[in-house]
Design goal:
The complex is a heterodimer.
Chain A (H helix, E strand, L loop, with lengths): L2 H13 L3 E2 L13 E7 L7 E7 L6 E4 L6 H23 L2 E9 L6 E9 L5 E3 L2 H14 L19 H14 L8 E3 H8 E2 L10 H8 L7 H10 L18 H23 L4 H41 L7 H20 L11 H25 L1 H9 L3 E10 L13 E6 L10 E6 L2 E11 L16 E7 L20 E5 L46
Parallel strand pairs in A: 2-7, 7-8
Antiparallel strand pairs in A: 1-9, 2-3, 3-4, 5-6, 10-11, 10-15, 11-14, 12-13, 13-14
Helix pairs in contact in A: 2-4, 3-4, 4-10, 5-6, 5-9, 6-7, 8-9, 11-12
Chain B lengths: L6 H18 L4 E5 L6 H14 L4 E5 L2 H14 L5 E4 L17 E4 L10 E5 H4 L8 E6 L7 H7 L3 E8 L26 H8 L5 E3 L2 E2 L7 H8 L6 E2 L7 E4 L7 H12 L1 E6 L9 H16 L2 E5 L2 E6 L5 E5 L2 H13 L6 E4 H4 L4 E7 L10 H4 L1 H7 L3 E10 L2 H7 L17 H12 L3 E3 L3
Parallel strand pairs in B: 1-7, 1-8, 2-5, 2-6, 3-4, 3-5, 6-7, 9-10, 12-18, 12-19, 15-16, 15-17, 17-18
Antiparallel strand pairs in B: 11-13, 13-14
Helix pairs in contact in B: 1-2, 2-3, 5-6, 7-15, 8-9, 9-10
The chains are: A alpha+beta, B alpha/beta.
Pfam families (chain B): AAA_12
Organism (chain B): Streptomyces clavifer
Keywords (chain B): ATP-binding, Helicase, Hydrolase, Nucleotide-binding
């Protein structure tokens, strides 16, 4: 945790209210996010219990499973979820604009520009918590290898038509959520934690209700008291005021309300199956649908507070103006969205269970690039984030006091002006440390030359506490090709800039071998092993059958 | 065979076996584990020269530019006429200017310019950009345990066979983003190059250098027991071979007494009163700086197997090691205030592979309220505790043992991942238990 975050948390404790960690919103929010609040069955990994889903906060769609261990009902749930989610995704997939993409020509090995279509916007999915993101991933994993009747007429338990497709999309969203700074699939708690520091531990910050209690406490009540009530407050029946944001449910709810309701449903179902005549069957069908209605209303009761909390969180975030570079990162999300759309349309098989060596290395490299870029962009977009970096010695703000022209020692000398900067900050500068400033939105590089000794004291390095120090930087680029620097490219005395010790842009890593050229050190090309490149569906196990 | 082999002979036998496998073996890879200061660089230079002498084109992969430059210089010392290529990046000032004075070294940013030279050396990062060249018959991968699996993936296509050399006890490579999703896969891109290599090629011959020439007899047993419990090594020198003394007697202060203790026994623990502090604990930082400044002021001098006459311990033979960069910066500032210059102050990551007479370390857990995986990492403490030839002074706040007991490791167990022994918790306790015998309480 950085020093400034620690300070913000202390202030939050002191004031009883969450403190801002950002002055702008660092994640893109679309105007029509699809909110999904899922619930899972306790003790039954990956068995969905219910969900609220939709883009209209006033009219969520409630989907429930009356008996989560019944695979037919589970499939019915997934089919309904597909019906709720896929049309939303497809509405974005169908609207594209022309764009250019750099590709390597396989024949010549040269980079060429290719005309492609880029989706004008992408479908954004919001879940309440990080566990919700994991659940989306799990749902994706459980669905994408399912077979429908069209895939294989002999499959013993065919999945409803659109379920595997939903699995592929959810897998894509789950995977994309691992890319730092991406906004395709976001957790409301992550979003809020990025922008506010509360007075509780980061573990407690995973509780959406408690988090909102700190950020936006009720009038006259300190955040800590409101958070405590959100976490632990129960009504007379022993039920939480603020049910967990899921997917796990509260055990008291499971034991006292849900389990008896499911039992009634099971009984009604058995009774219906044993009904001897039409009249009895009719009556028992009524009992069955009554039991089902009860489960639905129970689940709606615990889902709705979370649903409202997610929207309240989104409202709070919407009050912040979006950071200048967030749009940039969203464009990358749109490319990712478009890329997956194209793979689905091209009839490619679902994402493999495990990445091969090359794909894993590529993903790791691109995520590390994204992480470094995100950190730089947030600092450049937001003075409060930059302040944290300055406090950590990774950036500094200073006033230019002197500029002296100098030239590089080469056959064609280029300008290398020496700029003296006065600052009262203590950046961690070493010999030839590179520093960067933003010049018309592009980074200009300089290197640290030396501290200027104080006339009187002769203190060279660092200096003590809050004294101002003078340091000399040598500008090394972005001054044009001529002997004289381009106008405006060299700082002038009196200019005040932020200089960062971190790079503003990230260079991409090296090109890795193609998967079929995986070297011997990494086990050789994949697919030589048993199941081949196209993955088989999951085998049916005893646990799949009730 | 006698039970106790002469260290020189034991080391020579290991080296011969390694070179034999490298030059005449048939395996595609050979892995050499080397404890701190066991002559890894010497081995790399020797293997390179012998491969070159046998007429086999060789590429050498190191991890950092300074390691590459260092190897080039060492090669030139041993074989001033051997044509060596230094492949470098196209940044400004990409290599050490010392190389400009070496006639046998050709430098270029393009691999094609260096084709045909006996040995071409570069960093893994630069090699990864080399494409469309004829693969080399042989490669030496230096510091292979600090190389990430994905970095090896990018360069493995450039060579047919390779010698992997490294120290398994030092810091593991890390990634700045989570990589749990691949944990347990044989080719986990965030794991070390050697673990991926051995997961896919378990039959490869593995060797071990048995003698540390750097660590004194006072340090080798502790470092070996705490960090290499299943692959013990010993020191090349005996008790009494190395001595340290001071020209100026102790003034009775904490720093002076801990220096005397360290000079006498090889270890010293300067213990400050228990307290939770920010990372850049001002008192501890000042204590570190005072120890260093007293060490230099008191005219420390060392005798060793290299020279029987006392050699002054100058600033360039002293290092300060910390866990975090801001701590290093704070120590640097404190040293400047005391007028001390020329002492290397850096984090464990950056001190890897370097050697000093005396090291002063700020304990990674000093003053912390918690013990995170980062601070418990075995390699971090191992690097910090194994850089010295004579003595190591640890500056720490009281209460680290209790802190450890309150924070057992809670990292999730990942299926398929080889559990690393010893874990940091265990190693930290082992080192602390030993240091406690050399404890000096802080008295300013």
């Amino acid at each position: 945790m950085s020093l400034i975050t620690t300070l913000a948390r202390l202030e939050a404790v002191d004031s009883g209210r969450a403190q801002p960690l950002a002055t702008v919103r660092h994640r893109h929010l679309t105007d029509r996010p699809l909110v999904l609040v899922p619930l899972t069955t306790a003790g039954e990994a990956g068995a969905p219990l219910g969900a609220l889903v939709g883009t209209d906060r006033a009219a969520p769609r409630l989907i429930t499973v009356a008996q989560p261990r019944d695979r037919d009902l589970r499939f019915a749930f997934l089919a309904e979820l597909a019906e709720a989610v896929l049309p939303h995704i497809e509405s974005y997939a169908d609207a594209g604009e022309p764009a250019e993409r750099n590709e390597t020509d396989p024949g010549t090995g040269k980079k060429v520009k290719v005309e492609v279509e880029l989706c004008t916007d992408a479908a954004q999915l919001i879940v309440p918590s990080r566990a919700g993101i994991d659940f989306v991933r799990l749902l994706g994993r459980s669905m994408r290898f399912r077979r429908t009747v069209e895939d294989d007429p002999d499959t013993p338990y065919p999945a409803p038509a659109r379920v595997p497709l939903l699995g592929r999309w959810l897998t894509h969203y789950g995977e994309r959520a691992r890319v730092p700074g991406s906004s395709l699939l976001l957790a409301a708690t992550d979003l809020l934690n990025r922008h506010w520091a509360t007075g509780q531990s980061s573990l407690e910050d995973q509780h959406l209700g408690a988090l909102l209690a700190w950020i936006d406490p009720p009038e006259g009540e300190p955040g800590s008291a409101a958070a405590l009530r959100a976490e632990a407050g129960r009504d007379r029946a022993g039920q939480l005021f603020c049910p967990p944001a899921g997917p796990a449910t509260d055990p008291a709810f499971d034991n006292r309300l849900l389990a008896p309701a499911i039992e009634r449903y099971d009984r009604a179902r058995t009774a219906l199956a044993t009904a001897e005549d039409g009249l009895a069957a009719d009556a028992r069908l009524g009992e069955l649908s009554g039991a089902e209605r009860e489960i639905r209303s129970l689940l709606a009761g615990v889902l709705r507070p979370t649903w409202d909390a997610v929207w309240r969180g989104l409202d709070l975030l919407a009050e912040l103006p979006e950071g200048a570079r967030a749009e940039d990162r969203w464009t990358r999300d749109r490319w990712s969205f478009t890329g997956h759309r194209d793979r689905v349309r091209a009839g490619e098989p679902p994402q493999p269970r495990r990445d091969d060596a090359v794909t894993a290395a590529q993903k790791l490299a691109s995520r590390e690039t994204a992480q470094a870029q995100l950190e730089a962009q947030e600092a450049l977009d937001d003075p409060l984030v930059l302040a944290g970096r300055r406090l950590a010695g990774e950036a500094f703000v200073g006033v230019v006091t002197d500029v002296e022209m100098a030239y590089s020692e080469s056959k064609r000398p280029s300008p290398r002006p020496l700029v003296t900067v006065r600052t009262d900050e203590r950046p961690h500068l070493g010999e030839r440390t590179k520093v960067y400033r933003s010049l018309d939105g592009k980074p200009q590089t300089a290197e640290f030359v030396a501290y200027v000794p104080e006339e009187s004291e002769g203190v060279l390095d660092g200096g003590s506490a809050d004294e101002e120090i003078l340091l000399v930087l040598r500008i090394t680029d972005r001054m044009g090709r001529g002997k004289e620097p381009a106008p405006g490219s060299v700082p002038e005395p009196g200019d005040r800039f932020a200089w960062t010790l971190f790079e503003h842009d990230q260079r991409g890593g090296p090109k890795l071998p193609d998967p079929e050229d995986t070297p011997w050190t990494h086990g050789g090309p994949p697919g030589a092993a048993a199941d081949g490149p196209a993955e088989k569906p999951d085998p049916v196990t005893a646990e799949d059958l009730l | 065979m006698t039970a106790v082999l002469d260290p020189g002979a034991a080391a020579a036998r290991a080296t011969d076996a390694i070179l034999g496998d490298t030059l005449r073996g048939t395996a595609r890879g050979i892995v050499v584990d080397s404890p701190p200061g066991a002559g890894k660089s010497t081995l790399v230079v020797r293997a390179a020269l012998e491969l070159a002498a046998a007429g086999r084109p060789l590429m050498v992969v190191a991890q950092t530019n300074s390691q590459v430059d260092d190897l080039v210089v060492r090669l030139a010392e041993k074989a001033p006429d051997l044509p060596v290529g230094r492949l470098h990046s196209s940044d400004s000032d990409p290599y050490d200017k010392v190389l400009d004075g070496l006639d046998n070294v050709r430098k270029s940013a393009k691999a094609a310019d260096l084709a045909g030279l006996d040995i071409v050396i570069s960093t893994a990062a630069k090699w990864a950009h080399v494409k469309n060249v004829e693969p080399w018959g042989h490669a030496i991968v230096d510091e292979a345990y600090q190389m990430r699996s994905d970095a090896l993936l990018a360069v493995a296509g450039l060579f047919e066979r390779a010698l992997f050399v490294g120290d398994p006890g030092q810091l593991d490579p890390f990634s700045i983003v989570g990589a749990d999703q691949w944990a347990g896969l044989s080719y986990d891109p965030s794991a070390s190059a050697v673990s991926t290599l051995l997961a896919h090629n378990p039959e490869l011959p593995q060797h071990r250098l048995p003698v540390s020439w750097r660590l004194p007899a006072s340090a080798a047993p502790l470092v070996s027991d705490a960090f290499y419990p299943f692959t013990p090594f010993r020191s090349g020198t005996d008790h009494g071979d190395r001595r340290m003394s001071f020209g100026v007697p102790s003034d009775g202060s904490g720093p002076d007494r801990v220096l005397d203790e360290a000079a006498e026994s090889g270890w010293g623990l300067l213990e400050l009163p228990a307290r939770h502090t920010p990372r850049t604990d001002p008192e501890a930082v000042r204590a570190v700086a005072l120890v260093v400044s007293r060490l230099l002021d008191r005219g420390g001098a060392a005798t060793s197997e290299r020279s029987p006459a006392p050699v002054p311990v100058t600033a360039d033979r002293v290092a300060v090691g910390t866990a975090h960069r801001d701590q290093a910066a704070a120590v640097r500032a404190a040293l400047t205030e005391l007028g001390v210059t020329g002492v290397a102050v850096d984090t464990a990551n950056r001190l890897q592979g370097r050697e000093f007479d005396v090291t002063v370390i700020l304990h990674p857990l000093s003053g912390r309220p918690d013990a995170t995986a980062f601070h418990l990492e075995t390699g971090r403490l191992c690097v910090l505790a194994s850089r010295h030839r004579h003595a190591c002074v640890v500056v720490c706040r009281e209460g680290v043992a209790d802190l450890l007991d309150e924070h057992p490791s809670t990292e999730p167990v990942q299926l398929g991942v080889t559990v690393k022994f010893p874990d940091g918790w265990e190693a930290n306790h082992a080192v602390l238990a030993h240091l406690r015998e050399h404890r000096v309480p802080w008295r300013p």
